[in-house]
């Protein structure tokens, strides 16, 4: 079976060498030495000032909202993983959906300003598939209206825009290190800031708000363990090699798929991409479903990523029309992409896709 993704696992002996030290120290969690080492290496790799390694990519979104005291309206994207909207609702915020751009599927900065009200406090945007949002325009809008900017950068590890890590933009930026990501720690995430005081606040938020018997603030348990940090220390040095391998698979698809009958999102100028996903857009949902059935018949599992458009979720307080997102969400499919996906398998996948879309375009 070929799944849409496959987690990279490092050499087993390399990982267990780190675990031997954990056994010797009997320091399993609570800001351990491997966690601190991983944070330091990630800061250097990404070129960011402060980074807090946490338990997952959703809790860091919640921490960001809490740390910036966001409790009212937040303008956000309808085209993202559900965690983006869930974090807002969980923290008692009101999501206000701005539609997306039809070329790169990121939030349309031109749609943000008309949605701003006296209750708007922040913009929460996702760098979709690891591709940069309109960060300059979003920053200008935020400055004009004194709004905070949070980037859900879950897909962006190793990706840069104008020579800077995408995690370096915004008031706060978050990332996911789930096992399916370009860089992973099995489960994990991080939150990034350039502000010293904010970094200290986030440090306490991550650990119940206290150090030993001294209590400084509210907090939750967003800590991560030495076992997860050990995985990160094994995977991090391999990231450039993994991105290069993903790019080869990406290029295989580009050379084999029939783009007269499907499209792909465009990359923002200035991007150095990490090849996190390979999404394609079909002419209709009917064609997409035909392709999915054809692939699954050959034990190939793609993913409707992202589907549905988040503004249509049944638990969102009120429906807000986002026609571009709603349309793209019905027609977009992520094809299998991981570093060791064989060229012969890409050939087979592309052949099945091409055949299915050719059938869908036959006029009877």
UniProtKB/TrEMBL annotation:
Signal sequence coordinates: none
GO molecular function: pyridoxal phosphate binding; transaminase activity
UniProt keyword annotation of Transferase present: yes
InterPro entries given in the database record: DegT/StrS_aminotransferase, PyrdxlP-dep_Trfase, PyrdxlP-dep_Trfase_major
SUPFAM superfamilies on file: PLP-dependent transferases
Family: Belongs to the DegT/DnrJ/EryC1 family.
Protein name according to UniProt: Aminotransferase DegT
Biological source species: Spirosoma montaniterrae
